[in-house]
Amino acid sequence: MNPLVIAVPVVVVLALVLLVAAARRRDTDEATGLLSRETLKRDRGEPAVLAGATRITGREVERSVEVERRGGGAELATVGAADLAPYVPPDPDTLGVTRRQFFNRSIVLLMGLGLSGFGAAVLAFLWPQPKGGFGSKIRVGNVADIKAAVDANDGFYYVAEGRMWITNYPEAAIDKAKAVYPQPVLNSMEAGLAVLYQKCPHLGCRVPDCKTSQWFECPCHGSQYNQAGEKKGGPAPRGMDRFVTEVTGGVLTVDTGTVIQGPPIGTNTTGQEAEGPHCVTGGGGGH
Ligand code: FES
Prior knowledge:
The protein is α+β, with helices and mostly antiparallel strands. It is about 35% helix and about 15% strand. The two termini are about 45 Å apart.
């Protein structure tokens, strides 16, 4: 399953929960806190009432104190509607923002920014990469055009976008090739083209062509391969690796995201020998 399907809903739900929780926080100036267990227990208990004393409630005590503060029980003055000043809502700018509000809003803002950044980073990491380049399917072009490019480059056509070499593959060798290569590799060979990964199967150097010998010859440790990428010498454990290929409507497409291991040592479907001096020393000999 695509991890994006799980990660995106989880990030969204977490962000919503945190934002809702922050929004529900009461933004008041009242002192808040926790009463000790002993105080709560005492408050729940029955208040002590002296024998014969009239039991009065806390509200009555508060009311009597308020009345006393206002003048000992004097009646409140009544005013007419005309005497009432119209209500003018306070200007929020004049009221300003309390320190508590400032910190609360700052925390919510920073939390929102942090979650947004984290979510964006996760999405960017998991988002499918745009197609194109090495690792994707590459539409190399018309087979006829590619063959022309191979001939124009003395037998070796390099496709940098796919980190691949393309060479001509002789039609006469197809029967032998069918006994060695899987169909995804054969697809291009049957069209007359060998598609080879540039990476040396020994220790990963980029294998260059050698125009004089008409082989591939690795400068790192001297491994050599014929034009079909079959090992001819050196320490490499096999022939050059290949890709999944397909030819549709005369157009060659190479899936560089799927590497197929090269043929085993001893494979020689074309019988091509060196056609001139080698580019690296020790040519032709195995390690
Ligand atoms: S990396 Fe090519 S021969 Fe060692």
